[in-house]
Specification:
seven-stranded mixed sheet; alpha+beta; extended; Hypothetical protein af1432; Beta Polymerase, domain 2
Length: 504
């Protein structure tokens, strides 16, 4: 197994100074799986000050024995390599940080403090594997197993409870039975972890896209398969539910489990949310859209009235927006991201039936969500549809609505585009208010439609003087030509939009 030359060089320099050194952790795991590591870590028995002596162009800004070694590499993952002294860790009183970090003398001690067997692997400079906990075998079996006693590992750092789930999703592995049971037993410890750390793990789950999904056709599909549901990021939330983690992280989401819907849905609230979320991931939508798809019906269990096919969920969009804000505030998301996701949840039920909605209503929707967010809102609506088990992501009615939306978004061809106005026309041409003002404006518009470069103050003023010398009949003819041209342009744009969305 070949290591990058930068890693070999660091290990070789440390060894030439009498130290041991190995590549370790996730980079080894990914290398053995045939994946390109996102970063590289090296562990050594050299103390931080000794590492800096070997590598003068390095930095040490922590208390955990980790020195950043600059390699000069052009590759982002290798520009700075973290070199950390072998260490063992004492008790974790707060379930987050070791009470004390002690440097160790043996590689085995360092590997023994790591979370999972697949991360407790080391490589020497020749590519030989050091495996003290059976991590290589677990890679072959596709298992996430605790390194050592799982209860102890989770007691040390409770974030490992959630990290096990995240790794299972990212690697498409199963969680080993004893490790899984230990997560269930210790799930409540996750409450001792800072919300920011939990949020970051959740974001890694939400942003994960299985490699096979990245290779699919650019054309949107009209379904979520059972395999996609069971192997994609939605599986993480199911694992969190099964282990008890979810009720300590996002209990509001778990409330939808087993809650039936009405005649418009074939799935429970929970499964509907998971399918909507999966579709958002599958189609590589923004992470804010993915989160909105996950949360869009989060208030349904709290707004449900009645049971069976005629049950209702009135106001779940409004209540859901408030719940979404509360959840994201709790998880310490940035304010701007909270505002966007809340907006998408609040307006996901917008009226889109072209037989019931007017152009002014479309413009009102635009004002509510802004031009920047409107297409994400459309995506949430599509996720909602697919999550309901409908056969088409974009039915005729929605495509018809999209033509109305593009019309509202498109700046119409109008006299407002001219860099002049009626008052200036009257002053320059020396005329009173009347039809001639409009004729001249239209005549100028006719010219800039042919040549937009003419839409400059100097040219328009000069041309206005010339047009002011023409007769009413001549000006009216030029004006009518302009009106006809503007109508033709608008018609062409509308036809192109209709063709784009396959509507009449």
């Amino acid at each position: 197994m070949t290591l990058p030359k930068e890693i070999k060089e660091i290990i070789s320099k440390l060894e030439s100074d009498g130290f041991e050194a190995f590549a370790v952790g996730g980079c080894v795991r990914d290398t053995l799986l045939g994946k390109k590591p996102k970063d590289w870590d090296i562990t050594t028995n050299a103390k931080p000050e000794e590492i800096q002596t070997v590598f003068p162009d390095s930095f040490y800004e922590n208390k955990f024995g980790t020195v950043g070694v600059k390699t000069g590499s052009e590759e982002e993952s290798l520009k700075v390599v973290e070199v950390t002294t072998f260490r063992i860790e004492s008790k974790y009183s707060d379930k987050r940080h070791p009470d004390e970090v002690k440097f160790a003398k043996k590689l085995e001690d360092d590997l023994g403090r790591r979370d999972f067997t697949v991360n407790a692997l080391a490589l020497d400079k020749n590519g030989n594997v050091r495996d003290e906990f059976g991590g290589k075998g677990d890679l072959d079996k596709k298992l996430i197993r605790s390194a050592g006693q799982p209860e102890e590992r989770f007691e040390e750092d409770a974030l490992r409870l959630l990290r096990a789930v995240r790794l299972a999703i990212e690697l498409d592995f199963e969680i080993e039975e004893k490790t899984f049971e230990a997560i269930k037993e210790k799930s409540e410890l996750i409450k001792m972890i800072a919300q920011e750390r939990i949020r970051d793990e959740l974001l890694r789950i939400i942003n994960h896209i299985p490699e096979t999904w990245l290779k699919k056709s650019k054309r949107r599909s009209n379904e979520v398969t059972e395999d996609e549901l069971n192997r994609g990021p939605a599986r993480a939330f199911e694992l969190m539910r099964q282990t008890g983690l979810l009720k300590h992280i996002i209990p509001e989401l778990e409330d939808g489990f087993g809650v039936g819907q009405n005649k418009h849905h074939i799935y429970s609230v929970w499964e509907h949310d998971m399918r909507a979320f999966t579709y958002a991931v599958k189609e590589n939508m923004s992470w804010t859209t993915r989160l909105a798809a996950l949360f869009h019906d989060i208030a349904k269990p709290h707004t449900k009235v009645g049971d069976g096919p005629d049950s209702t969920f009135y106001g779940h969009d409004v209540v859901g927006a408030k719940m979404t804000k509360k959840i994201m505030d709790r998880l310490k998301f940035p304010k701007k991201d909270i505002e966007k996701v809340v907006l998408l949840v609040r307006y996901h039920l917008f009226q889109s039936d072209p037989e019931k909605i007017t152009d002014s209503a479309v413009r009102r929707i635009l004002r509510n969500v802004s031009h920047d967010n409107i297409w994400d809102l459309i995506d949430v609506r599509i996720c909602d549809r697919i999550g309901s088990g409908v056969p088409k992501a974009e039915p005729y009615r929605l495509r018809k609505f999209l033509t109305m939306l593009e019309k509202a978004l498109r700046e119409p061809v109008s006299l407002k585009q001219l860099k002049t106005n009626g008052a200036e026309i009257m002053e320059i041409a020396g005329i009173e208010p009347g039809p001639r003002v409009g004729f001249i404006l239209n005549a100028l518009m006719n010219e800039i439609l042919d040549d937009p470069k003419k839409n400059e103050k100097e040219y328009l003023q000069s041309r206005t003087k010339e047009l002011g010398e023409l007769s009413d009949k001549e000006l009216e003819k030029l004006s009518n030509e302009a009106k006809k041209k503007m109508e033709e342009i608008e018609y062409k744009k509308e036809e192109e939009t209709k063709k784009k969305y396959w509507v009449n």
